Amino acid sequence: MSFVTDHPINARWPAETPDLLQLYSFPTPNGIKVSAMLEETGLPYEWHKVTLSDEDVKSPEFLSLNPNGKIPAIIDPDGPGGQPLALFESGAILLYLAEKTGQFLSPDPIRRYQTIQWVMFQMGGIGPMFGQLGWFFAFGGADIEDERPLERYQKETIRLLDVLEQRLDGRDWLMDVYSIADIATAPWMRALAHYGVQSEIGWKDRPNVLAWFERFNARPAIQRAINIPPRE
Prior knowledge:
By secondary structure, the chain is α+β, with helices and mostly antiparallel strands.
């Protein structure tokens, strides 16, 4: 037996190779962050599809790994000091995998914290604001007659995109090289197309963001990651 096979989540999503890092996810922007990081680093792993239905994310088995009931989450049987580690929250997972592999996060203290600040920018701004815009524009909130919530999130999304546009002026990536800041942020650009809201936020008016997003999508690891685990 092992930490993975002993964990309650294994009863619903059994590991075929419990010695590998286990990914429990779905290809949403937050899920793609982690599959992208794993594909970019080449770290061996095994994926498990956890859908967004309450049957999955609110199941006792998944809540035993992530009490917040959100994908993604991981179990690394070979964590720090050789001890197993169960971890949730996509930003925390990106930082962990960067430190574990020594990739996509500069060892220089100044550049390291500058990179982390852009990860936090995504976690605290882009993810929540883009997600709220999508809900009010394309999903349940579309039936609300009061337009103020939609207008609020639309304006904030535009503001955040303008921050990215300025940051990417003269840069290929959010830092001097490709990093976890890009891996955290770029998958959320895909969500705007999914919501059908691109024209409302002036998507074509930001050439720096568009070029950056194209560079990101052209990476072979990203082309694999956007369908891990497969939707179908």
